């Protein structure tokens, strides 16, 4: 075999100097426009660092506003401080998505020998309490994407209750979420526990996004390759959509890949335009696959009805095909039941629809008086076939994993 098929493998890119800096896994150490938020978080944590139990904190902000990045930076900084009584556990609830898994993660962070032995929840709980109690530690539990924890009320209750079992020191919670309707799903008791303090991460505007992109372009692309107009366009697109830095960076990095593939030497507004389309779709599919279960089933129901046929469709004023909200709800109930899951009530369903609309996954519209009186009409923002495949692939993975 000749070396021909591999010839591009080690060819140096004309576009990128350090692709790593543009990867979604890269943790930036220079977080622009977030000094205020970082200072606030540290301020809330100060009592814990002094060995007093602080108050719980809830952080809200839309996707890509830097919540996880800020928190990781803070955790890293705190770990490098001289030893204090404070311990901090950063927990990604997408992975540790139940009370048991969260407690288990805390134990494996700090008592790894114990964690190997596979104890039940009561033992793990007691082990944590004793460990905190033995020298009055203060444990800060950071629950990122807290909304995906299945038995969240139980978890919050357990962590709070621990404070009455602990004689010295204590546990504080920092919850992070990007879901607007999350508050409504909590028990009033958990709500007042978690929201002792609240901090909001605002979305980035176009100028801020341009600076964030430029900073990463300087490290990740070769000098002079990226047109300033290309940076501004990527920023404007992401700002208009959502103010999401992840999207902004994804667009510029895809634009770089497109230029690379075409053997170009420049990243211009043209590559950014192409990249934006791809990036927005990719982000939408990722978002759909990470939706809470019932919201995902609702999106699935809309996709199936959109594909299935004209019986459910109704032409709106703008000539687009919409689907009756009531039909979506029935379809969703059927799907949930066929999966042995209890469907959520119509009240919940309406909340979810509002959420999905806000996230740009569906668009809704109120019909005037018509055959069925006032009703909501729903349409997917992306091709139904693709959404159907995305969700089915995701579910198959979950079933096997
Ligand atoms: N202020 C910033 N400066 C530089 N890069 C940033 C900044 N904010 C966000 N980013 C970049 O955007 C990406 C997304 O940020 P991050 O994961 O922190 O968002 P998030 O608020 O946690 O979003 P989600 O709600 O989806 O979890 C990060 O990978 C980071 O590279
Ligand atoms: Mg995050």
What overall geometry do the principal axes of the alpha carbons give?
A: globular
Helix content: 40-55%
Low-pLDDT runs of 5+ residues are none
Taken in chain order, the helices and strands follow as: HEHEHHHEHEHEHHHHHEEHHEEH
Provide mean pLDDT, rounded.
Answer: 89
Sheet bearing the most strands, described? 5 strands, parallel
Strand order, largest beta sheet: 2-3-4-1-5
**Hetero ligands:** adenosine-5'-triphosphate, magnesium ion
* Number of E-type strands: 9
| Radius of gyration over C-alpha positions, nearest whole angstrom | 24 Å
Distance between the termini: 38 Å
At the first level of CATH, the class of the largest domain is Alpha Beta
Category by helix and strand content: alpha/beta
Percentage of residues in DSSP E strands: 5-15%
What count of structural domains?
A: 3
- The helix tally amounts to 15
CATH architecture of the largest domain: 3-Layer(aba) Sandwich
User: What is the fold named in CATH at topology level of the largest domain?
Assistant: Rossmann fold
CATH superfamily of the largest domain: P-loop containing nucleotide triphosphate hydrolases
Q: Could you characterize what this model shows?
A:
It is a single chain. The chain is an alpha/beta fold. It has helices at 35-49, 67-80, 99-110, 112-115, 121-134, 152-165, 188-194, 206-220, 228-241, 245-261, 269-289, 293-308, 325-338, 346-358, 384-400, and strands at residues 57-61, 86-92, 138-144, 170-177, 197-201, 313-315, 321-324, 362-366, 376-380. The strands form two sheets. The chain has a five-stranded parallel sheet, with helices on both faces. The protein has a four-stranded antiparallel sheet with strand order 6-7-9-8. Helix 6 (152-165) links the parallel strand 3 (138-144) and strand 4 (170-177). The longest helix has 21 residues, at 269-289. The mean pLDDT is 89. Magnesium ion is lined by residues 67-68, 144.
């Amino acid at each position: 075999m000749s070396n021909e098929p591999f010839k591009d493998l080690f060819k140096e890119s004309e576009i990128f100097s350090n692709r790593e800096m543009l990867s979604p896994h890269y943790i930036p150490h220079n977080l622009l426009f977030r000094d205020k938020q970082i200072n606030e978080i540290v301020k809330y944590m100060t009592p814990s660092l002094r060995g007093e139990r602080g108050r719980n904190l809830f952080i809200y902000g839309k996707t890509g506003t830097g919540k996880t990045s800020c928190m990781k930076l803070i955790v890293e900084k705190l770990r490098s401080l001289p030893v204090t009584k404070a311990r901090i556990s950063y927990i990604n609830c997408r992975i540790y998505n139940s009370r048991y898994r969260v407690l288990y993660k805390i134990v494996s962070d700090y008592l790894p020998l114990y964690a190997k032995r596979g104890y039940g929840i009561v033992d793990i709980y007691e082990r944590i309490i004793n460990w905190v109690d033995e020298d009055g530690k203060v444990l800060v539990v950071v629950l990122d994407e807290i909304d995906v924890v299945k038995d969240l009320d139980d978890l919050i209750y357990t962590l709070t209750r621990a404070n009455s079992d602990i004689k010295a020191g204590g546990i504080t919670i920092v919850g992070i979420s990007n879901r607007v309707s999350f508050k409504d799903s909590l028990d009033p008791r958990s709500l007042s526990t978690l929201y002792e303090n609240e901090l909001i991460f605002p979305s980035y505007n176009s100028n801020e996004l341009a600076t964030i992109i430029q900073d990463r372009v300087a490290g990740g692309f070769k000098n002079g390759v990226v047109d300033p107009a290309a940076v501004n366009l990527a920023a404007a697109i992401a700002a208009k959509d959502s103010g999401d830095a992840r999207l902004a960076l994804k667009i510029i990095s895809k634009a770089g890949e497109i230029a690379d593939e075409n053997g170009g030497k420049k990243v211009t507004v043209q590559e950014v335009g192409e990249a934006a389309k791809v990036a927005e779709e990719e982000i939408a599919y990722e978002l759909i696959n990470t939706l809470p279960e019932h919201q995902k089933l609702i999106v699935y129901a809309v996709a199936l009805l959109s594909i299935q046929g004209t019986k459910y469709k109704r032409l709106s004023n703008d000539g687009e095909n919409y689907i009756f909200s009531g039909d979506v709800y029935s379809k969703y109930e059927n799907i949930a039941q066929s999966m042995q899951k209890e469907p959520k009530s119509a009240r919940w369903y309406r909340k979810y629809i509002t959420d999905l609309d806000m996230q740009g996954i569906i668009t809704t519209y109120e019909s005037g008086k018509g055959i069925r009186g006032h009703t909501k009409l729903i349409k997917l923002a992306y091709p139904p076939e693709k959404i159907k495949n995305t969700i089915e692939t995701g579910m198959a993975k979950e079933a096997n994993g």
